[in-house]
Design brief:
The complex is a heterodimer of chains A (about 525) and B (about 70). Chain A has about 525 residues and is mainly alpha-helical. Chain A has helices spanning about 5-45, 50-70, 75-85, 85-120, 125-155, 175-180, 180-210, 215-250, 255-260, 300-305, 315-320, 335-360, 365-380, 385-390, 410-440, 450-475, 485-490, 495-525; strands at about 160-165, 170, 265, 270-280, 290-300, 315, 325, 330, 480, 485. A two-stranded antiparallel sheet of chain A has the order 1-2. A two-stranded antiparallel sheet of chain A has the order 3-6. In chain A, strands 4-5 form a two-stranded antiparallel ribbon. The longest helix of chain A has about 40 residues, at about 5-45. The radius of gyration of chain A is 26 Å and the shape is globular. The N and C termini of chain A lie far apart (about 65 Å). Chain B has one domain. Chain B is built from four helices and no strands. Classes of the chains: A mainly alpha (about 525), B mainly alpha (about 70). Chains A and B meet through helix 2, helix 3, helix 4, helix 12 and helix 18 of A and helix 1, helix 2, helix 3 and helix 4 of B.
Chain lengths: ~525, ~70
Amino acid sequence: MEIDYALIDWSRLQFAVTALYHWIFVPLTLGLAFIIAIMESIYVRTGNPEWKSITKFWMTLFGINFAIGVATGIILEFQFGTNWSNYSWFVGDIFGAPLAIEGIMAFFLESTFIAVMFFGWNKVGKKFHLVSTWLVAFGASLSALWILVANAWMQYPVGMRFNPQTARNEMVDFWEILFSPVAVNKFLHTITSGYVLAAIFVIGISAWYLLKKRHRLFAKRSIVVAAVFGLIMSLMNIHAGDESARQIAEKQPMKFAAMEAMYYGQTNAPLVAIGFMEKVDHDRDNINERQFAFSIEIPDMLSYLAFLESGAYVPGIKDLIRGYTDNDGNNVLSYAERMRRGSIAITALHDYKEAKNIAKNSKANEMVKMSFMEKADSLEALFSDQEWVDNYFAYFGYGYYDDPKDLIPNVPVSFYSFHIMVILSGYFLLIFILALINVLKGKLERRKWILWAAILGIPLVYIAQQTGWLLAEMGRQPWVVQDLMTTAAAATKNSVSNIQITFWLFVATFTILLIAEIKIMLTQIKNGPKEGGQ
Amino acid sequence: MKRNVFARIFNLYYDGFRNLSPVGKRLWIIILIKLFIMFAILKLFFFPNFLNTNFDSDKERSDYVIEQLTKPN
């Protein structure tokens, strides 16, 4: 396969920028909806109009974020059809159902219950309004479920069968796709990260009011709700993240080795808590090897986190390339062997298609045609033979490469994005605990450093979100569908200039939208809430 | 009774849009401009579906994708 790296890089850059911009808007929508629902529940329960004005203020910020962010994800779907047509075709059957459900759900959710949320005050009963708000909260997270399931399938493809006639993966078991351990953990980790973001957002803005000595009761009440919600969600987020890392260690070991910058496997592997990398002096394998110039390590912790045994063996990048024996005594194939098997699978698909075409279209005599038909049938049967699928088709994507170096993701990006995300999640947990304890003790206003730390939390929580996705998507390269389809194979043979034009169009459009969001939000925050339930 | 329900739903939207706050109006303008840019400009001129535009049948599309996936280096 010819690889046009300029084309692929621009297609990737365009998709990455669109996805990262899209993810600026989504997590706040997911989390703020629940915080608003909790606040409104307190209003309905207590009848206190101050809680109504608290709810309405955060609902206005929710509305701004929702309006600016709505439909930005559709652009990603445009790109699937234009820039990633091979990929879209290859995964079509798997993605079709989840994305259709997402589209229908999002439409009904947005056109009905959000309308009740914003237009329904004083027009529908208090309880019906409250139910609508909760439905928006649950619906938004459920709507995110489907795209996350699709993404999880790309990281761990299950529940499908490849059809060599159509070159498409066909869904065999919907429930296996929906409830795959990667999908479950990805969903929980991602939505709880959105909840944490929204809680930090609410606490940060409320902290600013306290520093300015404005709307103090409003701010403290908001902080109590957000800190309790954030604390619970933060713990759930860390738990789901821990489980996700274990899934990666098992199912995407190269990504796991890259996110820990681990080149040499070992038992009792330490976890690098903080580290700075430099290039090694003698890169003997020519794999752009790095080493730590400085690091703080926790002994045995990586082995324990990955396999729940402090003495477990964690393979490094070089072990994965050369092949190794895992903790259960199984021999894990070297990359050279995977490339050989992948190449056999690609050849089988090529020969199948060729035999089928000759049998159908050639002017040769019937005997020759029959022999080609038999060949096509026997090759087609391979793709239904589970043993052949497990031993050959499972390595299909490796067949495009002849140098294992090309199968290593960007180690510094994976390592730093992972560690920034983890360190920041600890920072947010600390903010929730400190804010909650101090607001309950009535000391928060005096502890100005906590208020400033909470305000600083707002940009940091967005950085944590973006680094999380950077790790998820950069760490799995060169795969777009793990082990089966490479990013290079997924791309459409398009003109690079077209992608460059639309890339800059997107950057301009999204930047204008982001500036508009920040400007409108800041105006609303400066105006502050209307007191007395208005 | 049914008409009453529909009338109430209609009124919810009608009154909601009529009494939009200044921020609400501004947001709706942004939403409409954004949707126009996305669907009338980007989708129409820059993002045709490659396989649907260049091939007439699923058979041709799958043949093309298989050819792409199995091309030798």
